[in-house]
């Protein structure tokens, strides 16, 4: 009798669940024309409508093999939009936090802000923003909405040092390129140490349709363009770099060993330090040096002499009119004195506890708490000369991202 009763309950439960799933699929199908959205957009709308969805249910709704779900969901999981938790032999997906995501990766997307009308209260700040200068983006307010345009006279501030950090795909390289584009437009030469060959795309105009559609939100001219640059694998004469009206890219992609790449950059920094040591001090920005993968300088295999060159470059070159911009995955492994020598701090999304602790100590716990949920393309921006930190959304690039 007991067995028959349990079997009956199981059948009824299965029938009700199946009917509910069918009704849910039918209801959502009416909401979402299959040809109108990408699979990723469809998945997000299903999750918003249904709440929790199993991998099997979602695969069925999207009409894809369950093994192909990761292709659409992994980018959303990595950016903190979707939560995946294992239950038995399947996964349960749900929206983690409401966002007004302007970007799902460095190339921005066109999801409607209303789809992610969040209830995020950002820390309050008291800053009188510059009324003119280089337009870097827009200030973000509660619920990640875009507010006033963010201007900064880079010729005045860039030589004091810039630290850009965040997880992979958070938007830090795009932000670094925005700064470089603005300086190149102001005829300031730039030297970039690049191990990924992504900076060579600076010479190509932006062709990313979804990014181009966002130009109007940032008051940008609808004319993407590339920039003049020269690429070399060896350090050039400093005078050639300073006289070149564009960017000089030192291509490190052919050096597989990370410690060896650091050593090569260190030797180049030594040349720069030696050159400017005999130059007069200058309040005018003469050169910006961009060092990608700055976190590699904390490797055990990297010699102390190399670290000394980086530390000296960050501290000493500023008085000669040379700015140093470090682009790094992590900041907490750097010496605190080294970090403090970078006057501008740009913190993108990260979940690394060491960095969150560092941000909390320097900027306050309210900022460390929001850092893990920053949408891609948004950062915490802090310039000591202006005052309190605040959240910014960076503009798209004119060049190929």
Report the span from N to C terminus.
68 Å
From the coordinates shown, what is the CATH architecture of the largest domain? 3-Layer(aba) Sandwich
Q: What is the CATH H-level superfamily of the largest domain?
A: P-loop containing nucleotide triphosphate hydrolases
Average of the residue pLDDT scores: 82
**Which spans have pLDDT < 50 for at least 5 consecutive residues?**
1-36, 98-118
What is the percentage of strand-forming residues? Answer: 15-25%
Order of helices and strands: HHEHHEEEEHEHEHEHEHEHEHEHHEE
Q: What's the helical proportion of residues?
A: 25-40%
Largest sheet: spatial strand order: 5-4-14-13-12-6-11-10-7-9-8
Principal-axis shape = globular
Can you tell me the number of structural domains?
A: 2
Radius of gyration: 24 Å
The CATH class of the largest domain: Alpha Beta
Please name the defining characteristics of this protein.
Arc Repressor Mutant, subunit A; Rossmann fold; 14 strands; globular
Can you lay out the helices and strands and say which pair or pack?
Blueprint: H1 2-31, H2 39-50, E1 53-54, H3 55-62, H4 69-78, E2 82-87, E3 90-95, E4 134-141, E5 145-152, H5 154-157, E6 162-165, H6 172-185, E7 190-194, H7 209-212, E8 229-232, H8 238-243, E9 247-251, H9 258-277, E10 287-291, H10 304-316, E11 322-328, H11 336-340, E12 344-347, H12 353-363, H13 365-370, E13 378-383, E14 390-394
Parallel strand pairs: 6-11, 6-12, 7-9, 7-10, 8-9, 10-11
Antiparallel strand pairs: 1-3, 2-3, 4-5, 4-14, 12-13, 13-14
Helix pairs in contact: 9-10
